[in-house]
Predict the 3D structure of the following.
Amino acid sequence: MKSALVVLTVIACYTANGQSKLMASSKIATRIHAVAPPVTGKVTQADGQPLAGVTVTIKGTTTGTETDDDGNFTLEVDPGQVLLFSFVGYKNQELVVRDTNTPLAVKMEKGDDVMQEVVVSYGTQKRREVTGAIATVDATKLKDQPVPQLLNKMQGRLAGVQINQTTGTPGQGISIRIRGAASVNANNAPLYVVDGIPMVGGAFGINSINPNEVEDISVLKDASAASLYGSRAANGVVLITTRKAKAGETRVNLSAIYGITQVPEKGRPELMNAEEWVQFKKEIYEDKARYEGYTGGVPDIYQNPAAWRGKGTDWYDVLLRQASSSDYSIAVSSNKNKFSSTLVAGYFKQEGVLLNTDYSRFSLRSNNEYRVNDNIKVGTNISALRQSFQNFNTDGGYQVIYSALVTPPIFSPFERDADGNLKMSFSAPDILTQPNWYRSLTERIERTHTNGLMTNSYLEINFLKDFRFRSAFGVELEDYRLRRWRPSTASGDVFGQLPKPAEASYNTNSDISWVWENNVTWSKSIGDHNIEALAGYSAQRFRREGNQAGGTNFDDDLIPWVSGGPANFRTSNATTTQWSLIGAYGRLNYNYKGKYLLNAAIRRDGSSRFGTDNRWGNFPSLSLGWIVSDEQFASNLGPVNYLKLRAGYGETGNFNIGDFRQYAAVNQANYPFGQVMTTGRAIGGLGNSILTWETTKGIGLGVDIGFLNDRILFSFDYYRKNTEGLLFDMEVPASSGYQSVMSNIGEFRFWGYEFALSTKNLQGPLTWTTDLNLSINRNKVLKLGANNTPLGGINEYGDTWRTEVGKPIGQFWGYVYDGLYMTEEELNTQPRGINSMVGTVRWKDLNGDKVINADDRTFIGNPNPDFNFGINNSLTYKNFDLNVTAVGAVGGDLFDAKNEWLELIDGLFNTHRYVKDRWRSPENPGAGIIGRTAPSSTTAEHRKDNSRYVSDGTYLTIKNITLGYTHPQPVKYVKSVRAFLSIQQAFVFSKYPNPEVSANGLNGLSEGKDAAAYPIPRIFSLGLNVNF
Amino acid sequence: MKQLIYIFIAATSLTACSKGFLDNVPESNLTTGNFFKTESDFQQALVGAYASLQSAGNLNSWVMGEMRSDNTHYDINRGADAAIATIARLAVADFLDDELNGVTNDKYNSTYVGISRTNAILDRIETVEFDAGRKAQIIAQAKFLRAFFYFELVRYYGGIPLYIHEVKNAEEAKLQRATVDEVYTQIINDATEAADLLPVQAPALGRATKGAAKMLLGYIYMTRKDYGAAETVLKEITGYGYELLDDYRSVFDPKNKENKELILEVQYLQIPTGGNPSDFIYRFLPLTDDASKVTGFAVSNITSGLNVPTQNMLESYEPGDTRFEASVLIAEGHGATGSSFIIDTIKSPVNYTAPAGRVGKPFINKYNWPHAVVGQTNSNWPLYRYSDALLLLAEALNEQNKGAEALPYLNEVRNRAFAGGGTVSTTDQAQLREIIAHERRIELAFENKRWLDLVRTGKAIEVMNAHGIEIKQQDPGVNPAAYNVTENRLIFPIPRRERQIGGLTQNNGY
């Protein structure tokens, strides 16, 4: 800390002394000796909106001005002189002044993408000077989609960045994977950096950012772009820049979107109705009598299927509703003289399509900057947030969605008991007692609140002409609370009967994280040599304190909080965790004549998460670029007007392994002696003091080409990287007393190709642009643990994936389905297992030993797609605009784990309708797909992981269609009004109904499993956007 | 430029003072870095090792030690209750288990967890200074537990990897299988040392004693057919003050945990403040939606219907044996097997025949005691009882053809069971062998002794194949491939995961 003060002192001293020496660098000095009257004019954007802050200069001079809030300017010009209009992000315009008496009307066009400034690690760079692999999204293009999450809006827009909506849970369910990144035990989430401050997650996780606050997103895909974030950059870095007021502007923007959400009929599973199900049950008893000597007869309730005709309940439908979604936002921004300020306030609320689920968010952001003088500026960005979720365990086995699917249709949620109350649970012979899921869902509470405050204060000082010092201090505070309440009437699950005593829990986390970034930039142009050097230092600390309070065995349902439970059934457990990180970094950008580009960077990181003996790591990178089209010899490339080649190498790390993993924990293991509980302790795992980060080393090659004066822009990227020292929870024999040890043994290789094409198909009154991107990601396992023991695929039920050396990671593993043994002859002549009988399921005998057993399993599918793509089309005609965004994938398998239950032939659950046509006898063999229900000792065989659960996941989803109409200046004081209609999740074209599903997200190792997911709703919405 | 250099020096010097900044240690839990430093730490670690008895000594032992035998079977609605965990249990009962079986794998893994806890104590305790006498007591208990755990493993799985030191890293985690003899040598060393050091009187109920260690040795010698050695240690137990209670059933009464017949039990505790309750009876009940007639609670439990006394077991009780009703009851009711079975009344099994239209379902009564909270009982699981010692001693004597010496021990047990009667007088070795085996089956019914006794006495293949024929007649739903009992099936398979990761060989036939 003392040393930090030294730094500050050094700088402070320097600034004070150097003040007088510093150049007064005001670029715009108005000339006063004019002859003719000044020319006036108005600068607007293509859509007629005034553009403030445009620099207007007389060509060949330094004389000029800036446009005001309404886009107006006044400048003394001699006729015949040329005015140059320039503004960041727009093409320069030149205009010859003929007559100074006529006001000029200037329309600025959006500039070429290659001229745009791109946000990079610790700064910005012109797109043409970028040498790493960076994909960007202009967030203003995302504004119409009525979804709460930024990532959701980014779907399909970035080459090399796969984003799936794996479940429709309000406010959640978006998963991202950059360049196929995967780790076995560390997570593969990218690092998010907001306005230069690396986020630690929590309340300010990416999903909680109000997209309306965001101006710009850069995704640093390769190590050469991301290595300045060192030990955290291996999964890619997402840089988010929030809205700042443009120079000279004062703007008020109101936006409101209201939508209706619903679950499309298409894609819902086709299950048995009540009559079919009762018939199914009846047949089970008949077959039991026939094959097992059962004599109990068919229970009364199943005697007469026909009596159920037209009756019964579609449980899935009972739990769904049509819901609403609304998004309101106000943004005020002003940038005048020495002060700029932007305020964005938003409220978003989405009701879930499942009853009693919702998500809402209040957010407020205030970005302020004060320019003390030309050389010193200070600023503070403050963001406050409150989120509320009501969100049950909806997804996965035995959770709400699954249960809704499998609950027998003979029960009705609105059935009443003798006291006139809705029934709490249902039972019938030989099924599991099912709670009334309608009551479970509507009466339980499972609400999360998060409150967050993020501040980012900075000081920037220009000194010594070419130097700039920047110090930024960021703080993230989060308060998280999850309250659960399960009344006695609604706490049931498929294994228990009600009433069950009520229970409540209340979990809180309080997080604080701070980060201090200090760096110095030196930029200088010497002749044709342009140099920018950066050196910096960063320290960060995160600390969480949490408490889990719980109460069970409540006497009654009167108090829905932990306090309502009996004192001796209340528990509380307060814990804490923390980590800290120190990094020093440096970068050199050099270019010669702007066409030979070099970028070298290095970061040295130390992290508390790693072993005391292996704590520090270096992460260097080097990348080169060559703008070929600037060469003399390339002046005649035909339609090609721009051609850049890029190449880079870099190393990055992954530190997402959790805290304190180097230590072997000593956990409680109590035991009673007599009537006394005695405190016991036991080692909970193996420690590893040499544990360190995973390092990803890789090269990237790229080419950017512009055709026909940038009407067509094309980029191609190739990457190849190895992740070494995989953080790997290496399995050890359980006989050691432990299951695994976290270690750095393992290596994956990733490689891929990315294509991005951006075309202006039509210009003129009707404009049409298309952005297309396509990514091919491949991977292979090179080393796993000490002995290359494959991961997964040991058990026969629900052990769905196997990762094995020499193969792509995370492939599906199981038996190969081969129909049923249809006849006695088939059974006797073909390989069989211990449960095989005529009419039971048959697996392929893959090892040819004539016996079917666990050794006959193999890879049965690969969840990694052949390629992913996204297409975005924008059309404008006069005041109308139309935007269509589509995403998709070709190849890539999905594993329908729901089938284990929805094809259950034991009669416990409702099932797929086709289970009707199962094998019952040689005379009545059914469709040859589903086997016999008796003898019951054979039925479990049907549920083993097998190839019939695997489907092709190829899909195309029209994510969003928006049609808008803009009315410029409808009344005084209103600059423009835009109204639009939008459909989110408009159409899904696929073989599998829910192609983006993945119960474990996009983690690489266990992707593509459908274990019953919250349905992704379609949202119809209407929006209004007013600018003042 | 000079200034820039200053800044750089200043910035990098920050790194120098960073050591403390990065040294974060867990505050809200312990690690091996700050544990095992004091006597109290070792006392706690020892409690942790005892805690493993609940999983290693009991959890799945009733499946492998009892359902595997002719004492119990299961009575479930096979299709409707075919949870994976249930299927695994049925497979053990039916001799259809394989190396993926969750029950046998759990037993293997959790027993080794117990072993690793004892190894950590034994490896670390020498270097920590504290009272030598108390240190010796910790060592003795740890060695007793390690011997106990290995004895479980070697009987159920054959020769297994023999870890006698704490595993501290991945390299040390991998050991190949030792021979059965090697394992026994280690067990006998540990148990003998423990027996020498442990006190006769336990300092607290549930702690290992001299009696428990001698009992363990007795079993080891009996299993090794070293009857003379067994006789010696078992005889010593008779001098430690244990005695049979007058009432057989009261031995298992959770209100009577501190009784003189118990040598060692797996401890459980149901108290309002949480404790560590047991729930065996909930597995052993007949499947029903409403078990209130038995437990007092109207709840269903789909994992019931297990460890159900077989017809063969019920028939093996002699008339007048008071242990019958103490060990077994009949739930009489109507309706199909499964959750729709409705219990009408609870009956004694003595001379029971179901009335017309009613079904009588037997269930284990030993652990069926009133309890206050649903699913939470206060019952311990007996490991060693004095009557077990007496019968084992009688067997050791008879195997040495000292039938006359054996009789008093045998009759002490029988006289209690038959209210003073039931005296056996034959000294014919073969007859007496049958009588003692039968007596052990009845006296120790449902205490996880039967399967291991059958294996130990070489009877398992004969008895279980015959029993399989009976079961298939009574339960046509049993897989035709079941009950093919061969030499290979006398031990269980090494888990597939252990073979895959540790490269272990598999037992024959799996």
